[in-house]
Specification:
Elements (H helix, E strand, L loop, with lengths): L23 E3 L2 H8 L2 H9 L7 H8 L3 H14 L2 E7 L5 E7 L3 E7 L2 E7 L1
Antiparallel strand pairs: 1-5, 2-3, 4-5
Length: about 120
């Protein structure tokens, strides 16, 4: 199956989604599809789909090494489906937290290739 180099396709009309390009964010389709084939990446996405978590907490919850978690988070962030924010605590400490950057991912298969769109 040939995958296009395009990073964005519009979702099918039957799916209620954002109405303008400004409301849809572009993702790297190839990288996202590759990551969705990875068990650890899927587990991480599910863990951060409802709340932002630091990498250490993700590692603890999923019983994974921090290195494994960071590798997947970096690739997911690069693909455009995870965002990182800084969390500041009153005691002066701060840490990076990660959260899924979509409400829904839509896979489209069209004549010019396969695309992945996200809606937030």
């Amino acid at each position: 199956m040939k995958m296009s180099n395009a990073t964005h396709h519009s979702p099918p009309e039957a799916w209620a989604g954002p109405d303008s390009e400004d409301e849809r964010a572009t993702v790297d389709s190839e990288q996202t599809l590759s990551m969705l084939g990875d068990d650890y990446a899927r587990e991480i996405l599910m863990a951060i789909s409802t709340e932002a978590l630091p990498a250490q907490e993700i590692a603890d919850r999923l019983d994974l090494s921090r290195a494994t978690v960071y590798r997947r988070l970096n690739r997911l962030e690069s693909a455009g489906v995870v965002r990182a924010t800084m969390s500041y605590h009153p005691d002066g400490h701060h840490r990076k937290q990660f959260q899924a950057d979509f409400d829904r991912l839509v896979l489209s298969i069209e004549t010019d290739g396969i695309g992945v769109d996200k809606s937030t």
